[in-house]
């Protein structure tokens, strides 16, 4: 029994001695295939061993593991750039190294294209947002100026007086803000243009509200003051409702006049309160204030393209 144990120990010692006294470089390369911490490390170590030791003692063992493992990894990495790069880092001369290199180039090209497309999309979205912000700001400015002009007309009390008595808000807009209004004979006037935009068919429709401020005089004294413009009240309604009022549509026009009247009534409430100055109207007049020596009328155009008009003058019986 003792002789059997001794023989086994001697045989084992011979195997260990053969491993140590053989090609140590080969064995060290083989050990790296077994002690690698990651799959990528083991694949790289195995590929190097098979390439460096084509007739090595462990060649068949390493090959049996490496061949299917490398194929599985190649398939797994096909759409994964980090894995593909890891493949080339560990196996620059691997069985699929050329295909991996080409795949990396293709995926990087797609990534660059996708990034550029996203940049273009983001720039487009940013541009749209800026356009919408600008359009909203222009609509607010238009409505503010229209209401201010209407309120200034309602506050006029200097009929029969020089233009210097018209009131600060009206004179600010007529004389101070550039370009100033002009006078010729018994007529003073100034043109206003209010650009704005409203959505229409999934795009922004650029619009311009044209308005004219006119002051009629007699021997240099104020008689009437008016604000008018082609379908001016429809333009006001567009800015309020943020949508186009189609020309030649009676129903849309009627709705537009209603929205414009809301703006006018609010602007006129302080200088000419409805409770004390309200008066009956007859078409085409749609709003009237009559009190304190003043008569103000809002007259809607009957035909498309004609001017809507807000006129104020001395109170008449």
Q: What's the structural blueprint in terms of helices and strands?
A:
Layout: H1 2-21, H2 24-35, H3 39-52, H4 59-76, H5 81-90, H6 97-154, H7 168-176, E1 182-184, E2 187-200, E3 203-218, E4 221-230, H8 232-241, H9 250-268, H10 274-277, E5 285-291, E6 294-299, E7 307-314
Antiparallel strand pairs: 1-2, 2-3, 3-4, 4-7, 5-6, 6-7
Q: Quick summary of this structure?
A:
The chain is α+β, with helices and mostly antiparallel strands and 317 residues long. The chain has 2 domains: 2-95, no CATH class; 142-314, no CATH class.
Explain this structure to me?
The protein is α+β, with helices and mostly antiparallel strands and 317 residues long. The chain has two domains: 2-95, no CATH class; 142-314, no CATH class. 55% of the residues lie in helices and 20% in strands. It is built from ten helices and seven strands. It has a seven-stranded antiparallel sheet. Helix 6 crosses helix 7. The longest helix is centred in the middle third of the chain and has 58 residues, at 97-154. Residues 1-21 have low confidence and may be disordered.
């Amino acid at each position: 029994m003792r002789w059997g144990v001794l023989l086994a120990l001697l045989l084992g010692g011979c195997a260990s001695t053969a491993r140590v006294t053989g090609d140590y470089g080969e064995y060290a390369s083989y050990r790296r295939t077994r002690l690698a911490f990651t799959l990528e490390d083991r694949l790289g170590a195995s590929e190097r061993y098979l390439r460096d030791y084509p007739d090595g003692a462990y060649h068949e063992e390493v090959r049996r593991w490496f061949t299917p493992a490398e194929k599985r990894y190649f398939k797994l990495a096909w759409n994964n750039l980090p894995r593909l790069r890891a493949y080339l880092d560990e196996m620059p001369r691997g069985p699929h190294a050329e295909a991996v290199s080409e795949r990396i180039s293709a995926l990087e090209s797609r990534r660059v294209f996708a990034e550029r497309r996203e940049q273009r999309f983001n720039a487009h979205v940013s541009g749209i947002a800026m356009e919408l912000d600008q359009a909203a700001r222009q609509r607010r400015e238009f409505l503010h100026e229209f209401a201010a002009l209407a309120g200034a007309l309602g506050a006029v009390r200097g009929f029969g007086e020089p233009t210097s008595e018209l009131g600060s808000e009206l004179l600010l807009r007529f004389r101070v803000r550039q370009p100033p209004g002009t006078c010729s004979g018994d007529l003073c006037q100034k043109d206003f243009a209010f650009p704005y935009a409203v959505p229409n068919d999934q795009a922004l429709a650029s619009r311009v509200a044209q308005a004219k401020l006119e002051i009629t005089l007699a021997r240099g004294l104020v008689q009437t003051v008016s604000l008018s413009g082609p379908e001016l009240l429809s333009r006001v309604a567009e800015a309020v409702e943020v949508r186009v009022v189609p020309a030649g549509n009676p129903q849309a026009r009627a709705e537009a006049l209603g929205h414009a009247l809301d703006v006018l009534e609010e602007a006129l409430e302080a200088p000419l309160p409805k409770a004390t100055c309200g008066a009956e109207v007859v078409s085409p007049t749609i709003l009237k204030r009559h009190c304190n020596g003043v008569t103000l009328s809002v007259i809607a155009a009957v035909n498309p393209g004609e001017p809507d008009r807000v006129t104020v003058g001395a109170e008449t019986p």
